[in-house]
Design brief:
Structural class: mainly alpha
Largest sheet: none
CATH class of the largest domain: Mainly Alpha
Order of helices and strands: HHHHHHH
CATH topology of the largest domain: 434 Repressor (Amino-terminal Domain)
Number of domains: 2
Distance between the termini: 42 Å
Length: 113
């Protein structure tokens, strides 16, 4: 698979995993809807600046978007990755759920300290 097609598929996969439209990705990333459409169509490899903006909006590394030296952590359960992309700041969760997630994180940090 060529690089443009890989990037196109990866962006679409990540965007779909959090139920964003191309327009929402454009809004969140600051990249035009037309550019997102061209990139996802495989007709354009994004510049490094555009790649960074999209990666930041999707809460992934540039390496994950491009398939270059994807770190071992990228092999983590896809549901967990989608969860943290969607709720990374926890603001989208109800307060009891926020507290539960924070308790889990604290417990994991304490165990690994």
């Amino acid at each position: 698979m060529d690089k443009a097609k890989f990037i196109a598929n990866k962006i679409k996969e990540l965007r779909d995993s959090i139920s964003w439209s191309q327009s929402e990705l454009a809004r969140q990333s600051g990249v035009t809807s037309a550019a997102i459409s061209k990139i996802e169509g495989g007709g354009r490899i994004p510049s490094m600046t555009v790649t960074r903006k999209i990666a930041d909006a999707l809460k992934v590394s540039i390496a994950e978007l491009t398939g270059d030296d994807v770190p071992q952590a990228a092999e983590v359960n896809k549901e967990a990755q989608a969860f943290f992309r969607k709720y990374g700041d926890l603001e989208g969760l109800q307060e009891p759920d926020q507290k539960l997630i924070l308790e889990i994180i604290k417990s994991m940090k304490d165990k690994n300290a």
